[in-house]
Model the fold of this input.
Amino acid sequence: MANFSKSNVPQFSVEVYQNEFLPEGGREVNAIVTVTSTGGGTTGGIPLAGSTPSPAYGPGQGPDAAVVLMVDCSGSMDYPPTKMRNARDATAAAIDALREGTRFAVVAGTHVAKDVYPGNGRLAVADQQTRAQAKDALRKLSAGGGTAIGTWLRLADRLLGAAEVDIRHGILLTDGRNEHEAPEDLRAALDSCAGRFTCDARGVGTDWEVKEVTGIAAALLGTADIVADPAGLAADFTRMMENAMGKEVADVALRLWTPVGVEIRFVKQVAPTVADLTGRRTEASPRAGDYPTGSWGDESRDYHVCVLVPEAGIGQEMLAARVSLILPDPSGAGAPQTLSQGLVRAVWTDDMVASTSINPQVAHYTGQAELAQVIQQGLDARKSGDFDGATAKLGRAVQLASASGNQDTAKLLSKVVDVVDAATGTVRLKAKVAEADEMTLETRSTKTVRVKK
Done:
């Protein structure tokens, strides 16, 4: 649990962007809530304007943290043999990036999970000696067996749960499909681990299932990505570990309080990636619910809140929602701490210009959420042989990416379709698409660009 007794913890701020004006009879209120934490560790989400990643602590200092690295050691990791070597090297690079004093363990994952370092259900404490010992253990890893990711996650949960630390984090690498346990077993493991630790997931090569890897990251509030070329693993693992070491506070919740009569349509994270949090609400009081946001360092994230208010007459106004950042008491006995809050308002007016204008932030992120959705729909249509449907959806994706300035996504789309006219979304499906290009587009489809404020 997070500990606010240290002096170098982030300070949180909440800003609300919305058009509060509604026409007579209008009910839907949309707001973009920007949450920013400053004064913590390295940048973990969208880097703050003008910031450079600079640790807030000296060497060996920082919040207590524990990390478990889960390495796929199934038989497919031997094809080609360089894949296993790259995985070992990447895990070693991540261990080098551990802050002094961080507790850690390495799990070898096949159809069973084994803690290969330090072993016996324990965590090591990072120093020069334990890093060297861990690398020795890594050198002995070999490929063989199946893939049952739920067992890896449950072992990581047991290891992390035994540690008295502020930050609990997992890093998971797989190269294949989760073929040696039922989908409901993985789902049950994710449900069991959710809220207990965060986890970044990576798929290496092109023989894994995108929806499995992105589903793991989404459930455990981490990042997902593809490393198509195993040679890129070490750099990616180093970045992931540095990011994890930059987290300063865990278990922060976005609390939404609404008055009687107000209905919540949805709560979504919309930057740096799209993630629907609506179904993850836990009740805090009769009128308030908490949505998990995970761990924070120096970073900024945007959330889209949409509520339905009761109808009201011209000139009426009301508080549509109160958004707060909440930190639970580490002991579980005391009251949670409110870190910052913002207000969402509704004002009814007969000024048509005021009530029909769309807030730029709301418009931008509505488009970004649609972009993620139509990419998924387009790729699914392409796989099922519905080429007309795929062309229409991916054409709309090109149009949205172009209009919003999402150049990274536009570049990924151009490897799947030939763009005739980006402004109108006129495209042709490419006859041949590299599997890595299609998987990269699908994996990164939820990444968004920040609206220019």
Observations:
- The mean pLDDT is 92.
- The CA atoms of residues 87 and 233 lie 7 Å apart.
- The two ends are 34 Å apart (CA to CA).
